[in-house]
Amino acid sequence: MFAHFCLSLCYSGLLIAQGATTALPCSADTTLYLDSFGDTANGAGNSVFIGLNTTGVTRRMLVKFDIAAALPANARIVTVQLNLNVAQAATLPPLATTVHLVTAPWDEGTANAGLLQGIGTTATAGDCTWLHRNWPTVFWATPGGDFDPTPHGFADLPQPGPTNFPVTGSMVADVQSWLNTPANNFGWLLKSNELTTREVRRLDSRESLTPANRPQLLVTYVLPGGWANAGPGCGSPVPPTLAGGGTFATGFTATFTTQGPAFTPELTLFSFILQQPAAQLFPGCSFHLPFGSITPGLRFLDGAGVAVEGLPIPASSSFIGLSLASQSAVLDSLQLLGFSLSNAVFALVQ
Known about the structure:
Helices cover 7% and strands 41% of the residues. By secondary structure, it is mainly β. Strands 2, 3, 5, 6, 7, 8, 12, 13, 14, 15 and 16 form an eleven-stranded antiparallel sheet that branches. The chain has a six-stranded mixed sheet with strand order 1-17-26-25-20-23, with no helix packed on it. A three-stranded antiparallel sheet has the order 18-19-24, with no helix packed on it. The two termini are 21 Å apart.
């Protein structure tokens, strides 16, 4: 069935409307301060903390974004990027930090530690603490937060300055799940390995006086019949490009258009999966599809440097909601592996 589908479908193509990227503000964030009494909080403070402080006491960050309020209900998430700003660092080496899916609801609260952000202040009703999801009566099942222990994302937090958590398939799945089922959106918990004293990072919270430094989630999505770029290309002097067009719907024909140097050999690769994070073939060059992706064969760009393939979509309801990812490779003797790569494209059949 898969092979038959590939032979009939993988002759390139795309869709009606290009996808969109939107920047979502943080809807809630706070710090969990290790405290055996569970009465320390800072939900309304302008900072959040990750790591161990100078006395070896743990801090963890909680952050949440209201996905359902910002995106169309029928959107398909293509890629996400969590952006944070490090305001202060206690140590020079980057702090390895992981993102974890929170599995229970929590409340941000109203406590504000003022000038004592690093140590927190006494919790008020509704605050989130090391022991409580909602102080003083609703507890975490596990002190320090209820979360999936398997990391869903990774980043090294630097010295002061902006940083981001690159996309992973797990982060995309989390955001899609929050869109599909808003009642289960409990956000992410961010933590270090919590082994080294003085590794703590102070980050700007959503209450920061500098709006540009507040936590932000960049989300790229498509609607049924739409397509979106996913990641840059690589090559010299200018990377080739790939774009979608036509009508990406059952019973219609869509197109994939590659543009690059005239009369150059080219392959357009297809998959049902967009690989995230992308594989780094060499520095600055990312392959966004799984290895072993299929291609209809070698083509040549024309005198204008263009090649277009039509993709007929069978008139069958079984193809509705099918996703397709594509990326083109163009011969390039100046590149380490002998070819350049276009951006990737992600499409959704309607």
